[in-house]
Fold:
Amino acid sequence: MRYLVAFIILFFTQETIAQETKPLKKVSGTIESVTTLMPLANVNIININRVKGTTTDSKGYFEIDANPLDTLHITCVGFTTLKVRVTTDWIKNGSSKIQLTEKSIALEEVIVRKYQLTGYLEIDTKLIPEIENYRYSISGLPNAYEMGDRSPKAFSRVMNAIFNPADMLYNFFGNKPRELKKLKEMRKDDTVRNLLETKFDRETLAGLLGIDKNDIPEILQHCNYSQSFIETANDLQIMDAISQCYEEYKVLKKK
Structure:
């Protein structure tokens, strides 16, 4: 029985390696609006499995490297994100037509009350507090820590990291090492980086990593990033922060 289990594991491992080393094929398609049936330009298409990206031209046309069972992550401003599985028939037939649905966004009332401004620049600049967060390192630890006068729980996060730095990272990285290896590939592809630089919703980044976007703030908290950074950074900055933290985790794990 033991030999049978070992054989099955070896078989599936070889199948996975064969899939990853198989030469990539080209798939193409046209993306249009489901409402107007007009082609959509500048739509972002990313092959999640290969971490390769491209965009549609003025006629909504695109080409991208892919193999059967790869997943394409398609995003466009004002339209619902779509995931499409590449099939053998798609590759054989050449091109495919994909339709995106427009987002329905309900606007809510926003009331800003944090600062009572007078309208005089010289006075107002003194009323608004200056928030400074610094990223610094502690001798003997490979991690860097973000902290400022107004960073919530900054002191306790740093102290916890000093006493047991590996535990804060193992909770996430120890469970998902394979997904996070994609970070290196994501940093190499200019299309992916340019897309993430313009996004703040964590949706594309979560899709590329194969995680829930609600996990991202937790990851960054384990990496000792401030709440202000987590809330205001674009997806590219978030990706680089996670990547740096993952590399630090691997160093801690080896030690």
Remarks:
- Residues 2-21 form the longest helix (20 residues).
